[in-house]
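note to self: dont lose this again. the chain is below, predicted strucutre after it. 390 aa total, dont forget to put it in the shared folder this time
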Amino acid sequence: MEKIQVKKLVKIFGDNPKRGLKLLKKGHTKEEILAETGLTVGVNDVSFDINANEIFVIMGLSGSGKSTLLRCLNRLIEPTSGEVKLGDSNITSLDKKELRDVRKHKFGMVFQNFALFPQRTILENTEFGLEVHDDITEENRKEKSLDALEKVGLKGWEDKYPDELSGGMQQRVGLARALAVEPDILLMDEPFSALDPLIKREMQDQLLDLYEELNKTIVFITHDLDEALKLGDRIAIMKDGEVVQVGTAEEILTDAKNEYVREFVQNVNRSQILTAEDIMIKPKAVLYENDGIKTAKYKMKRNGLTSMFAVKGKRKFKGIVRLENLIDAKKDIKDFIESTKTARPYETLDELFGDMADLDVPLPVVDKDNNLLGIIVKGTVLSNLAGEDD
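---
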């Protein structure tokens, strides 16, 4: 999987953009260039790297240039100057045939507008991106599309039509269509902004689940800071066509580079950015499904615990066992494993407070395959939140 490198990228809209480019190099502002020439600077001298297999979020207010920048990455919009490199390949210097091949095999795109064909079934909409691939048979196209629909939770809906689906489900179709071509890179232009808050959160969680499962790089555009903080491994903040800061959520919140970024993040609290993965700790010990009653009692006594989490095999999470239930027990330990609430590594503290409040034991954190990754104890939560004013 290749890294994306963006170097000194500029996009100027209007006649004779080279005139605007000369003015930019002389230090003229976006507003000055517009007033003098009528040219609009969409992207201004942008440079950054996007690592392979990360979710890189580009955020900013309306008119900041974020969608223009995204489209420059695969040359849906032609840059005025600068470079976009994918590994050793310079996207900005490819001829039309080479560019078509790169778009077909490397990039998948998901738009804010679902852009579904109303006269096509859900399966036919999903197959659309594969129809330009001459080397894919009709049977293989259908197989890939059905697999993509299953990945986004739409198995069984393939014969329906778009008007039979909710907005969130229609956006899942758009995502499935991009996944069906099996791209290395997903470009997502504010894909969830038209959805209501509950569906939006579900789609964010769906994307994170897919990200855990698939070997993809995701470039995600949003104007929503909460969404950026939830999804992004790193975030680039744009203003007036320029990238004013790139960093992790924690870096941006604790070390804002200018007043614009500080104003952007001033009302964010740590509970909205700290995730289960950030604050979980390893359990002192675990029980194994085949442990005997005496072994379970010994482990709890040795570690000073009144309950322990049980796993199958190395770490497949099964539930919790309480010491009080083992006092006079003679049965197999499997009979005393109780189910309990779990958290996913990407869920924020803000999302988990309710679950933690209801529990008298730590909250286990599991991955998409239900493997136990760690546990969250209330004392750890409080100590992390106490660092908010550090």
